[in-house]
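no rush on this but wanted to send it before i forget. theres a chain ive been looking at and ive put its sequence and its fold in token form underneath. please have a look and point out which stretches look like helix strand or loop to you. thanks a lot i owe you, the record is right below:
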Amino acid sequence: MPSRKFADGEVVMGRWPGSVLYYEVQVTSYDNVAHLYTVKYKDGTELALKESDIRSQSSFKHRKSQSSSSSPSRRSSSRSRSRSRSPGRPARGRRRSASQSREHKDDKKKTIQETSLALPVLVLFKLSENNTRRYNGEPESTEKNDTSCIILEQKLKPDLEVKHVLEQYSLRSRKDDKKKEEIYSEKKTFVAVKPIEKVPTKTKELEFGGRIGTFTLIFLLPATVFYLLLMCKQDDPSLLNFPPLPALESLWEGRVFGVFLLWFFLQAVFYLLPIGKVVEGLPLSNGRKLPYRINGIYAFILTAAAVGILLYFQFELHYLYDHFMQFAVSAAAFSLALSIYVYVRSLKAPEEELAPGGNSGYFIYDFFTGHELNPRIGSFDLKYFCELRPGLIGWVIINLAMLLAEMKIHNLSVPSLSMILVNSFQLLYVVDALWNEEAILTTMDITHDGFGFMLAFGDLVWVPFVYSLQAFYLVGHPTTITWPIAAAITVLNCVGYYIFRSANSQKNNFRRNPADPQLANLKFIPTATGKGLLVTGWWGFVRHPNYLGDIIMALAWSLPCGFNHILPYFYVIYFICLLVHREARDEHHCKQKYGLAWERYCQRVPYRIFPYIY
């Protein structure tokens, strides 16, 4: 095993990924397996660099000029010239002042050389700064940064003018110039190395309670789903009234599993249809961008047409309600099989395709969080497909089935007002997600989390069977609400939706086209990554305004169920816990990614989700 070259705590020069620029960094740790150094930049950003991308500070010290070592012939000629002074040459008594003048000139040349070295740094700083601002949609300068640069330019301008004159009337020999060109060529060759290749390191910080926590969640999540569904079937769904366990043979039916498979592969066919635009996702660790077809809204329209045809031919859609538990078991079994498949295939995946959060080397942890970031079968992206299609669209179909079941069981000509509100609110949420499908490409699920049991079970089981809990509850526990109460709940949902959608649109538009004139009024904090942190609009109100809107809508979905039992409020309670945990994950990742810029942002926007509370 090769020994490490740089020690922990040593200050060295590290290259910024994807560029030829070196910055002063401090070595914090070394990975003996991947042979990578973890270094910390002055702004707090931490990156993993290879040893070939790190240089000692002595390598960047300026070379001393060798022009002072003149040949003996030049020294003798200078002595012969000194004997025959011209009439205008000063006397011997003034030669000391002349030498002082030459020393002053040498100092001036030295200053000019230092100035010439500082100028490219200034130019690179300005270019990087302007590129950052163009990315974020603001002018190419701010008052603070421009003032400092103008002062520096004014200081350098006289020296540059003197340098230009000296170069124009230089008396150095061509041999010295040739040496200087060789030195410059060596420096240029030294700097212009090939771009850094990012090699993913092992996941050191384990989330969700580590190996023990993820092992527990693999069993706890399915048990929670089955418990909630059994509770809703009871006449008294109070927490202290534990439901009786059903017979195992009643939980499985081959026909139900076949219907679920038909639903899954039908959505896969809709996904593969050559309709809708194709966009690129965010750059991966190797710089590659994956293509994604945006046709979720078309899949929803085709699904709605298919369901309409089934209803026209009097297909009993409340079959879903009658076999709801069996559908949940079928979905759980399929998600488990899918999780095993993607984990086994991830063992042969290249290192650069592994998920940054699921490469710990522990089987249970990587199986739960997802070992491979973007598992694909050809152009079919499994994670992206499951994120929105079968579970999210299935949620709407389940709600519709509960509405028809309520009408049939209670002999209603029209559904109850509570059921209409729940179906309408959640339908709006799903259609909004499919209409803005492209926005999901920047979420943590796509960019950071691998595709494992957590996302497979969450997308295929948790979303359709837990998020539809209010509609399932109302079938067995009808609740009557008045029109004024319904109007107040509708206003609450509209407020939550407005905050949720406007905050997400503001963020997505800023990321997609920062130069949009409509975003010119937005202010941001620039970061070392070239991206900006919004500090105005909704993102200057709280750090996660979209989470705030989500929680308000979740409350509006539960209120039509009344206050007789806490069961229909499980969703809003769970959702608050989920978003607080996700906010903590975001906080940790952003602090590592943006460093001091994130600390400045937190000082500017102190509240995380709930203003003046949290």
Remarks:
- The chain has three domains: 10-58, 208-479, 481-613.
